[in-house]
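Notes from hallway chat w/ T.B., transcribed later so I don't forget. T.B. wanted the structure written out for a chain they're using in a teaching module, and asked if we could keep both sequence and structure tokens in one place. Agreed to drop them here.
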Amino acid sequence: MVRNCTLKDEQTWLKLNKEFIEFEYQEENVWENPLDKGDMSEVFRQILNNHNSANRLFMIEEAGRIIGFMNTAWFLSIWAHGKVLFLDDFFITKEFRGQGYGKKAIKELEVLIKSEGYVRLQLMAENTNPGAVRFYEREDYSKQIINFFCKYI
């Protein structure tokens, strides 16, 4: 179900990321609209063509059909004493939401990264997306309320 993106996935990845941005983006939040920033396909190719990239892009596939994606980045953590995967974006298309595919995908990702030596999976879910907050709470993710700061430079 969860697999690494390949260059052949570019158009599907772009389409799904645009759907995700339109679903998630709100004018009043801290993020600048990524659709106004430039060509996402260039970033996609930079990630996939750089084998030393900290970014990992995953497609979520069910019965031969792409139903979502996960954009991630990894780092070494002093506190976790090892590799941590940060789940930056996680999207299941509307047609497939509420049917257990998100749960199946996150569990599969957990098993995959544990087998690769990762010790923690972490993420953020914005309060503007209460469905995502409830999902991660149901999946036994510990919740820490923090202040998130961002400055475009």
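Follow-up for T.B.: The two ends are 37 Å apart (CA to CA). Might be a good example for the class.
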